[in-house]
Amino acid sequence: MGRYIVRRMLINIPVLWLIVTLVFFATSVLPGDFVAQRIAAANPLGGQDQAAQIATVKKELGINQPIARRYVTYLWNTVHGDLGQSYRTRQSAFGQFKDALPYTLQLSIIQLIIGLAISLPIGIISAVKQDTMTDYVLRVFAILGVAAPSFWVATLLLLYTVRYHLFTIDLIGQPLLWQHPAASFNLYILPGIAGGIASGAGVMRLLRSQMLEVLRQDYIRTAWSKGLRQRVIIVRHALKNAMIPVLTIIGLTVAGLISGNVVFEYLFSIPGIGSRILAAINARDVPVVQAFVLIISAFVVMVNLGVDILYGWLDPRIQYS
User: In the CATH scheme, what architecture does the domain 94-314 have?
Assistant: First the structure.
Protein backbone atom coordinates (compact mmCIF):
# COMPACT_ATOMS: atom_id res chain seq x y z
CA MET A 1 0.00 0.00 0.00
CA GLY A 2 2.76 2.43 0.94
CA ARG A 3 4.65 1.82 -2.32
CA TYR A 4 1.44 2.32 -4.28
CA ILE A 5 0.76 5.68 -2.60
CA VAL A 6 4.35 6.86 -3.20
CA ARG A 7 4.16 5.80 -6.85
CA ARG A 8 0.85 7.59 -7.33
CA MET A 9 2.24 10.74 -5.74
CA LEU A 10 5.20 10.64 -8.12
CA ILE A 11 2.88 10.16 -11.08
CA ASN A 12 0.84 13.17 -9.97
CA ILE A 13 3.88 15.48 -10.05
CA PRO A 14 3.82 15.81 -13.89
CA VAL A 15 0.05 16.35 -13.70
CA LEU A 16 0.49 19.26 -11.28
CA TRP A 17 3.35 20.66 -13.39
CA LEU A 18 1.12 20.59 -16.46
CA ILE A 19 -1.66 22.34 -14.53
CA VAL A 20 0.76 25.01 -13.28
CA THR A 21 2.00 25.58 -16.82
CA LEU A 22 -1.45 25.80 -18.37
CA VAL A 23 -2.70 28.16 -15.66
CA PHE A 24 0.33 30.42 -15.99
CA PHE A 25 0.11 30.83 -19.74
CA ALA A 26 -3.70 31.02 -19.73
CA THR A 27 -3.66 33.88 -17.23
CA SER A 28 -0.82 35.57 -19.09
CA VAL A 29 -2.90 35.94 -22.27
CA LEU A 30 -6.10 37.14 -20.59
CA PRO A 31 -7.51 40.25 -22.28
CA GLY A 32 -7.00 43.32 -20.13
CA ASP A 33 -4.28 44.13 -17.65
CA PHE A 34 -4.42 44.71 -13.89
CA VAL A 35 -2.01 47.63 -13.96
CA ALA A 36 -3.73 49.35 -16.88
CA GLN A 37 -7.16 48.89 -15.26
CA ARG A 38 -5.98 50.27 -11.91
CA ILE A 39 -4.27 53.32 -13.37
CA ALA A 40 -7.14 54.00 -15.77
CA ALA A 41 -9.57 53.87 -12.83
CA ALA A 42 -7.38 56.25 -10.82
CA ASN A 43 -6.97 58.62 -13.79
CA PRO A 44 -10.16 58.33 -15.86
CA LEU A 45 -9.22 61.37 -17.97
CA GLY A 46 -5.89 59.87 -18.95
CA GLY A 47 -2.72 61.87 -19.33
CA GLN A 48 0.67 61.94 -20.95
CA ASP A 49 2.38 60.22 -18.02
CA GLN A 50 -0.04 57.26 -17.92
CA ALA A 51 2.26 55.02 -19.96
CA ALA A 52 5.16 55.84 -17.66
CA GLN A 53 3.04 55.05 -14.61
CA ILE A 54 2.06 51.69 -16.10
CA ALA A 55 5.71 50.86 -16.80
CA THR A 56 6.73 51.81 -13.27
CA VAL A 57 4.03 49.73 -11.59
CA LYS A 58 4.74 46.73 -13.82
CA LYS A 59 8.40 46.94 -12.84
CA GLU A 60 7.44 47.01 -9.15
CA LEU A 61 5.21 43.97 -9.58
CA GLY A 62 7.84 42.13 -11.64
CA ILE A 63 5.59 41.64 -14.66
CA ASN A 64 7.67 43.71 -17.08
CA GLN A 65 9.98 40.78 -17.78
CA PRO A 66 9.67 38.40 -20.75
CA ILE A 67 7.06 35.71 -20.28
CA ALA A 68 9.61 32.86 -20.40
CA ARG A 69 11.60 34.39 -17.56
CA ARG A 70 8.45 35.02 -15.55
CA TYR A 71 7.41 31.40 -16.07
CA VAL A 72 10.73 30.07 -14.76
CA THR A 73 10.54 32.39 -11.76
CA TYR A 74 6.95 31.39 -11.04
CA LEU A 75 7.79 27.68 -11.32
CA TRP A 76 10.78 28.08 -8.99
CA ASN A 77 8.74 29.99 -6.43
CA THR A 78 5.91 27.46 -6.60
CA VAL A 79 8.25 24.54 -5.96
CA HIS A 80 9.52 26.38 -2.89
CA GLY A 81 5.99 27.05 -1.60
CA ASP A 82 5.75 30.70 -2.61
CA LEU A 83 2.46 31.19 -4.48
CA GLY A 84 2.94 34.93 -4.91
CA GLN A 85 1.22 38.03 -3.62
CA SER A 86 -2.05 39.60 -4.65
CA TYR A 87 -1.69 42.61 -6.92
CA ARG A 88 -4.64 44.29 -5.21
CA THR A 89 -3.91 43.75 -1.52
CA ARG A 90 -0.19 42.89 -1.61
CA GLN A 91 -1.01 40.03 0.72
CA SER A 92 -0.06 36.40 0.29
CA ALA A 93 -2.22 34.59 -2.27
CA PHE A 94 -2.14 31.49 -0.08
CA GLY A 95 -3.28 33.60 2.86
CA GLN A 96 -6.31 34.72 0.87
CA PHE A 97 -7.11 31.10 0.06
CA LYS A 98 -6.78 30.20 3.74
CA ASP A 99 -9.17 33.01 4.67
CA ALA A 100 -11.76 31.85 2.11
CA LEU A 101 -11.44 28.12 2.83
CA PRO A 102 -13.61 27.95 6.02
CA TYR A 103 -16.62 29.43 4.20
CA THR A 104 -16.38 27.10 1.21
CA LEU A 105 -15.52 24.12 3.40
CA GLN A 106 -18.53 24.69 5.65
CA LEU A 107 -20.87 25.03 2.67
CA SER A 108 -19.38 21.96 0.96
CA ILE A 109 -19.65 19.79 4.09
CA ILE A 110 -23.30 20.74 4.55
CA GLN A 111 -24.02 19.96 0.90
CA LEU A 112 -22.18 16.64 1.13
CA ILE A 113 -24.01 15.58 4.29
CA ILE A 114 -27.39 16.50 2.83
CA GLY A 115 -26.54 14.89 -0.51
CA LEU A 116 -25.46 11.58 1.05
CA ALA A 117 -28.33 11.60 3.56
CA ILE A 118 -30.77 11.88 0.65
CA SER A 119 -29.08 9.82 -2.06
CA LEU A 120 -27.97 6.70 -0.18
CA PRO A 121 -31.34 5.80 1.42
CA ILE A 122 -33.25 6.70 -1.73
CA GLY A 123 -30.93 4.66 -3.95
CA ILE A 124 -31.20 1.61 -1.69
CA ILE A 125 -34.97 1.84 -1.14
CA SER A 126 -35.62 2.43 -4.84
CA ALA A 127 -33.66 -0.70 -5.73
CA VAL A 128 -35.22 -2.87 -3.04
CA LYS A 129 -38.74 -1.65 -3.98
CA GLN A 130 -38.15 -1.96 -7.72
CA ASP A 131 -41.15 -1.20 -9.96
CA THR A 132 -43.40 -0.27 -7.06
CA MET A 133 -45.08 3.09 -6.46
CA THR A 134 -42.31 3.97 -3.99
CA ASP A 135 -39.71 3.30 -6.66
CA TYR A 136 -41.52 5.44 -9.23
CA VAL A 137 -41.85 8.39 -6.83
CA LEU A 138 -38.20 8.23 -5.79
CA ARG A 139 -37.03 7.95 -9.40
CA VAL A 140 -39.06 11.03 -10.34
CA PHE A 141 -37.45 12.90 -7.45
CA ALA A 142 -33.98 11.82 -8.61
CA ILE A 143 -34.69 12.90 -12.20
CA LEU A 144 -35.94 16.29 -11.00
CA GLY A 145 -32.80 16.66 -8.91
CA VAL A 146 -30.64 16.05 -11.98
CA ALA A 147 -32.71 18.24 -14.32
CA ALA A 148 -33.40 21.26 -12.10
CA PRO A 149 -30.49 23.77 -12.07
CA SER A 150 -29.15 24.05 -8.54
CA PHE A 151 -28.98 27.86 -8.65
CA TRP A 152 -32.67 27.95 -9.65
CA VAL A 153 -33.60 25.72 -6.72
CA ALA A 154 -31.56 27.92 -4.37
CA THR A 155 -33.22 31.06 -5.74
CA LEU A 156 -36.70 29.59 -5.21
CA LEU A 157 -35.83 28.57 -1.67
CA LEU A 158 -34.52 32.06 -0.97
CA LEU A 159 -37.62 33.72 -2.42
CA TYR A 160 -39.99 31.52 -0.40
CA THR A 161 -37.98 32.12 2.76
CA VAL A 162 -38.11 35.90 2.30
CA ARG A 163 -41.73 35.94 1.11
CA TYR A 164 -43.12 33.99 4.05
CA HIS A 165 -40.60 35.26 6.64
CA LEU A 166 -39.53 31.75 7.58
CA PHE A 167 -36.28 32.91 9.17
CA THR A 168 -33.72 35.72 8.92
CA ILE A 169 -30.70 35.30 6.63
CA ASP A 170 -27.65 37.36 7.54
CA LEU A 171 -26.17 38.21 4.13
CA ILE A 172 -24.00 41.00 5.58
CA GLY A 173 -22.47 39.46 8.69
CA GLN A 174 -21.39 36.25 6.87
CA PRO A 175 -21.15 34.23 10.12
CA LEU A 176 -19.39 30.89 10.41
CA LEU A 177 -20.78 28.00 12.42
CA TRP A 178 -18.37 28.42 15.35
CA GLN A 179 -18.94 32.18 15.46
CA HIS A 180 -22.75 32.33 15.48
CA PRO A 181 -24.32 28.85 15.04
CA ALA A 182 -27.94 29.93 14.52
CA ALA A 183 -27.21 32.74 12.04
CA SER A 184 -24.70 30.57 10.20
CA PHE A 185 -27.21 27.72 9.91
CA ASN A 186 -29.81 30.11 8.45
CA LEU A 187 -27.30 31.40 5.90
CA TYR A 188 -25.93 28.05 4.77
CA ILE A 189 -28.96 25.77 4.92
CA LEU A 190 -30.60 26.97 1.68
CA PRO A 191 -27.52 26.62 -0.57
CA GLY A 192 -26.74 23.43 1.34
CA ILE A 193 -30.12 21.92 0.43
CA ALA A 194 -29.93 23.07 -3.19
CA GLY A 195 -26.37 21.86 -3.64
CA GLY A 196 -27.04 18.64 -1.73
CA ILE A 197 -29.96 17.72 -3.97
CA ALA A 198 -27.97 18.51 -7.10
CA SER A 199 -24.90 16.55 -6.00
CA GLY A 200 -26.90 13.65 -4.59
CA ALA A 201 -29.22 13.14 -7.57
CA GLY A 202 -26.56 11.48 -9.70
CA VAL A 203 -25.50 9.27 -6.79
CA MET A 204 -29.14 8.17 -6.30
CA ARG A 205 -29.54 6.97 -9.86
CA LEU A 206 -26.15 5.24 -10.04
CA LEU A 207 -26.59 3.55 -6.66
CA ARG A 208 -30.02 2.25 -7.66
CA SER A 209 -28.70 0.73 -10.89
CA GLN A 210 -25.69 -0.80 -9.12
CA MET A 211 -27.86 -2.21 -6.34
CA LEU A 212 -30.19 -3.82 -8.88
CA GLU A 213 -27.23 -5.42 -10.62
CA VAL A 214 -25.74 -6.72 -7.39
CA LEU A 215 -29.08 -8.03 -6.07
CA ARG A 216 -29.31 -10.30 -9.13
CA GLN A 217 -25.97 -11.98 -8.37
CA ASP A 218 -25.82 -15.63 -7.30
CA TYR A 219 -24.23 -14.97 -3.92
CA ILE A 220 -27.16 -12.69 -3.00
CA ARG A 221 -29.62 -15.45 -3.92
CA THR A 222 -27.55 -17.81 -1.76
CA ALA A 223 -27.76 -15.37 1.15
CA TRP A 224 -31.54 -15.20 0.75
CA SER A 225 -31.78 -18.99 0.63
CA LYS A 226 -29.79 -19.24 3.89
CA GLY A 227 -32.45 -17.17 5.59
CA LEU A 228 -30.30 -14.14 6.38
CA ARG A 229 -32.14 -11.03 7.42
CA GLN A 230 -32.89 -8.48 4.71
CA ARG A 231 -30.91 -5.74 6.42
CA VAL A 232 -27.82 -7.96 6.64
CA ILE A 233 -28.08 -8.90 2.96
CA ILE A 234 -28.63 -5.33 1.79
CA VAL A 235 -26.05 -3.57 3.96
CA ARG A 236 -23.30 -6.13 4.43
CA HIS A 237 -23.36 -7.94 1.08
CA ALA A 238 -25.12 -5.90 -1.59
CA LEU A 239 -24.36 -2.29 -0.63
CA LYS A 240 -20.65 -2.82 -0.07
CA ASN A 241 -20.16 -4.18 -3.59
CA ALA A 242 -22.52 -1.68 -5.20
CA MET A 243 -20.63 1.23 -3.64
CA ILE A 244 -17.39 0.67 -5.60
CA PRO A 245 -18.44 2.59 -8.77
CA VAL A 246 -20.60 4.94 -6.69
CA LEU A 247 -17.51 5.91 -4.70
CA THR A 248 -15.98 7.34 -7.87
CA ILE A 249 -18.95 9.65 -8.35
CA ILE A 250 -18.85 10.68 -4.70
CA GLY A 251 -15.16 11.52 -5.05
CA LEU A 252 -15.83 13.67 -8.10
CA THR A 253 -18.72 15.29 -6.23
CA VAL A 254 -16.49 16.17 -3.28
CA ALA A 255 -13.90 17.68 -5.60
CA GLY A 256 -16.59 19.62 -7.45
CA LEU A 257 -18.10 21.04 -4.27
CA ILE A 258 -14.87 22.79 -3.31
CA SER A 259 -14.46 24.48 -6.68
CA GLY A 260 -18.03 24.65 -7.98
CA ASN A 261 -19.93 26.80 -5.48
CA VAL A 262 -19.34 30.09 -7.29
CA VAL A 263 -23.04 30.73 -7.95
CA PHE A 264 -24.12 29.87 -4.39
CA GLU A 265 -21.41 32.04 -2.87
CA TYR A 266 -22.35 34.95 -5.12
CA LEU A 267 -26.09 34.54 -4.49
CA PHE A 268 -25.76 34.35 -0.70
CA SER A 269 -22.80 36.73 -0.32
CA ILE A 270 -20.51 34.02 1.04
CA PRO A 271 -16.84 35.09 0.79
CA GLY A 272 -15.60 31.64 -0.18
CA ILE A 273 -13.13 30.34 -2.72
CA GLY A 274 -15.48 30.60 -5.70
CA SER A 275 -16.47 34.22 -5.15
CA ARG A 276 -12.88 35.29 -4.47
CA ILE A 277 -11.44 33.60 -7.53
CA LEU A 278 -14.19 35.17 -9.64
CA ALA A 279 -13.33 38.60 -8.24
CA ALA A 280 -9.64 37.94 -8.92
CA ILE A 281 -10.38 37.01 -12.54
CA ASN A 282 -12.42 40.17 -13.07
CA ALA A 283 -9.64 42.28 -11.56
CA ARG A 284 -6.93 40.37 -13.46
CA ASP A 285 -5.28 39.57 -10.12
CA VAL A 286 -3.19 36.83 -11.69
CA PRO A 287 -1.27 35.52 -8.62
CA VAL A 288 -4.52 34.87 -6.73
CA VAL A 289 -6.04 33.04 -9.71
CA GLN A 290 -2.92 30.92 -10.16
CA ALA A 291 -2.68 30.05 -6.46
CA PHE A 292 -6.35 29.13 -6.11
CA VAL A 293 -6.39 26.94 -9.23
CA LEU A 294 -3.18 25.18 -8.20
CA ILE A 295 -4.43 24.40 -4.68
CA ILE A 296 -7.82 23.20 -5.97
CA SER A 297 -6.08 20.99 -8.55
CA ALA A 298 -3.86 19.47 -5.86
CA PHE A 299 -6.97 18.81 -3.77
CA VAL A 300 -8.68 17.04 -6.69
CA VAL A 301 -5.59 14.87 -7.21
CA MET A 302 -5.56 13.90 -3.53
CA VAL A 303 -9.28 13.09 -3.59
CA ASN A 304 -8.74 10.76 -6.55
CA LEU A 305 -5.92 9.06 -4.66
CA GLY A 306 -8.15 8.66 -1.61
CA VAL A 307 -10.90 7.12 -3.73
CA ASP A 308 -8.46 4.58 -5.19
CA ILE A 309 -7.33 3.62 -1.68
CA LEU A 310 -10.94 3.18 -0.52
CA TYR A 311 -11.52 0.73 -3.38
CA GLY A 312 -9.28 -1.76 -1.62
CA TRP A 313 -11.14 -1.30 1.66
CA LEU A 314 -14.51 -1.96 0.02
CA ASP A 315 -13.30 -4.90 -2.06
CA PRO A 316 -10.34 -6.91 -0.65
CA ARG A 317 -9.98 -8.60 -4.04
CA ILE A 318 -8.48 -5.37 -5.40
CA GLN A 319 -4.71 -5.61 -5.16
CA TYR A 320 -2.33 -2.64 -5.34
CA SER A 321 0.73 -3.46 -7.39
Answer: Orthogonal Bundle (1.10)
